[in-house]
Design a protein that fits this description.
Oligomer: single chain
Distance between the termini: 45 Å
Number of helices: 13
Low-confidence stretches: none
Number of strands: 10
Order of helices and strands: HHHHHEHEEHEHEHEHEHEEHEH
Shape: elongated
Helix content: 40-55%
Length: about 290
Amino acid sequence: MAEHELLDLIIARIPLKMQERIRLYKECDRIDDLVSGTQNDLEALVGRTFPETFEWNPAKWRSQAEQDLTTIRKRAIHVVSLRDTTYPPLLREMHDPPVLLFYRGTLPDPEHALVAMVGTRHPSPAGSHIALTMGQEFASAHISVVSGLALGIDALAHRGNLSGQTVAVLGSGLDEMSPVSNRPLAHRILENSGCILSEYPPGTTPSRWRFPQRNRIITGISRGTVIVEAPQKSGALISARCAAEQNRDVFVASKNGKALGVGAQKLVDDGAKVIESAGDVLEDWGISG
C-alpha cells in the first residue's frame, strides 16, 4: 500500500481540531514520524499541549486506518487529499478545508461552475416545485447542483439535476448514508455520473454537529448558494452564513418575487440576491444558458 495513502487515513483518525489536522497534514510526511514518536512529538507538530483526557494511541489510529483502507477498496470508495491535483480547487480556498474527501462516483469538473441548493426538510408545494424545476434548469445549462441528500429541498434539487451530474455531500461516512429513504436516490446519482462525497471515514455515523460541518463543504465547493425555502430556524441559514463567510454568492429563490419562509426573507432583507430561475444565476455569472 502507498505510504501517503495510509498516512492520510491515520491523520484522519486522530482526534484533532480542524486547523491542527491541516497543520499535521502539512508537517508530517512519514508514518514513522507519527506512530513511532511520542505525544510530545505530536504536540510539537500541531502546536498545542493536549489536555489530560487526550488518549495517545498511535497503534489504534493505525489499525483504524488500515481497516478504513480495506473498507474503501472493498466498497469502491475513492479518496482525494489536499496533496492531489484532483482536489476541488474552490475547497482549497477555505480556511478549514477537509484534509481528505471520501467519494463515490465522479468528482466534478473543476472547470465547470457548481451551485449549491439547500432549504427546509418540510417544503411547501411552491418550494418543492422551485427546487425540482431549478435543478432541471441548471442541468440543462450543464451546471451541477450540490446539496446534502437530506429530505425535502435537498432531495428535490438532486432529483431535478440528475442529468447535470449532481453532487451530494454527507454528514457521515459513505457507508452510513442517512436518511435511509434517500438511498435509492443516491444510487440514481451514481448511475448518472454524479458524485457522493464526505470528509468522514467509513463507519462514521450521522450526528447533529456534523451537519453544520458538512454545510461548509456544500457551499465551499460551489460558486454560489441558492436558498430555496427556509423557515426562521433552518440549517439552510447556516449554509447561507458559510457561503457569505467564504465569499460566495448567496441567492434566494422566490415565487412571484416573494421569498419562501421567514428565514429566507431575512436573507433578502440583509442583501441576498432574489432569483426566479436558474437563468438569473447564469446571467449574474455571465454564463450563457
